[in-house]
Amino acid sequence: MIFKLLKSGYANVKKALAKTGSVIGSKLRSLFSTPIDESTLDKLEELLYEADLGATYARELTDKIRLLLSKDPTLTSEALIDYIRSEILGQLNLLPNHSIDISTATPFVILIVGVNGNGKTTSVAKLANLFKQSGKKVIIGAADTFRAAAVEQLEIWAQRLQVDIIKGLPKSDPASVTFDTVSAAGARNTDVVLIDTAGRLHTKIPLMQELEKIRRTCKKVLPESPHETLIVLDATAGQNALDQANIFHKYTPITGLILTKLDGTAKGGVAIAIQRKLGIPIKYIGVGEDLEDLQPFNAEAFVNAMFE
Length: 308
Description:
Strand content: 5-15%
Radius of gyration: 21 Å
Oligomer: single chain
Order of helices and strands: HHHHHEHEHEHEHEHEHEEH
Structural class: alpha/beta
Number of helices: 12
Largest sheet: 8 strands, mixed
Helix content: 40-55%
Number of strands: 8
Strand order of the largest sheet: 3-2-4-1-5-6-7-8
Shape: elongated
């Protein structure tokens, strides 16, 4: 049963990364199918950049391939591709804490942040489903009080999933909703608290400061919380997603990434670029629209799918 689930999970990741794979895996094989010269290496760097690995890392990888070939010009295309695959996997594995261990605290509070349109509210519902499927009691805090549609959406998800939800009046203080949610979680013997925040425009400093207030409110109820602060990023945004994460991280310590819409982009390499730049591990990836299409991040499966 477990093997079937893992196999199914990899199939979903592979499908989601099909566009990225067409840029990296397929084009690499085509590129290395002819004699490799300096022009080929220039195209390699461009290809890696197109996959949104970042200009610096694309150059570093290309230089490593150049050095390898200078030592052994007879290396096969598959040997070179395997080397690039291994290098990227090594980069992702530099940060080992890709999983979330909710057994370290009860209730375990997770703050969800991000810009509107990245799939943040939907990701909250998908996380609730993941935890409930593993037998955990979940409560959702609808702290995005400035967007009535977000609260309504979460209410519908909560009813469907049969999990508790705490909400406030429209445009009420998000921190008060957060306070009520974390307090209720303790009283109701809840395992996991998921707090949805407003989709902050990362250029609006007062709104970011409000996010800091929400964090302080969590600590008033539960001093060590939030235990995780996850930012939801749209993979189709490419390097713009990196800019968003960087600014959020300045105002509230981000502990993990949720990368959505991987099935809609050829720029899945942005996952490596963000983790490398910010030193923040990827916790979950979105591989489709369905409720079950949010999966814990597995570096090896992710990289293998990129090169299919």
